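User: Sequence for Glucosamine-6-phosphate deaminase below. Tokens please.
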Amino acid sequence: MKLVISPTPAESGAAAAAAGAATIREALDARGRTRIILATGASQFEMLVALTATPGIDWSACEVFHLDEYVGMSASHPASFVGYLRSRFVAQVSGLGRFEAIDGTAADPQAEIDRLSAAIAEAPIDVAFIGIGENGHLAFNDPPALFDTEAPYLRVTLDQACRQQQVSEGWFPDLGAVPTEAYTMSIPQILKARQIICTVPDSRKARAVQGAVEGPLTPDCPASALQGHANAGLYLDAAAASLLAKRAG
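Assistant: Structure tokens for Glucosamine-6-phosphate deaminase:
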């Protein structure tokens, strides 16, 4: 796993965006199209600002998937990840080719999972922009996570640490307002991306980063799954990297 540590979240986000943009350009040059995965949440603010400002990318040839959404949540809700990406990414780029949004309000959750699974299987993913949760989760794969499932998407129950993080970051007023279930891309599906750009700022994530980088490969720290990916980069600010024994790479 490649470590890139920058002094501030803005610098870390810019470095992550630059690395991902290079892969996007390579895919466009080679095949005339690109497919990417985007994460949401506070950890992605600076990266998305930098990525959407990157010149020279034909976004009309780009297909975008995202990692997760709450079950039962409308895209108009302030905490919706679909709404987040529509405002922070889709509206910021010119003529995006495709945004495969998860329908949190789907009447048949299994049918929605099947639809998403078929869509993402159409072609390989070039780059996945992801983050790590305070409890070590990737997407909404809370510990202990499924490392061996063949399902591209899952319906999961969120643990309390994950739900509390959503309150702490200001997305919900209290724990009772946070949904208990979500749709999530599975860890094996995330790992199928040719490149993974994992952006993690803030001291709140330092313990999870330490487990992901220096701990054992274990479902109890879902982010440790990144250790098995041949082209994964972890983009940290100084605070997120503060507990690492080795702080360069």
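The chain has one domain: 2-237.
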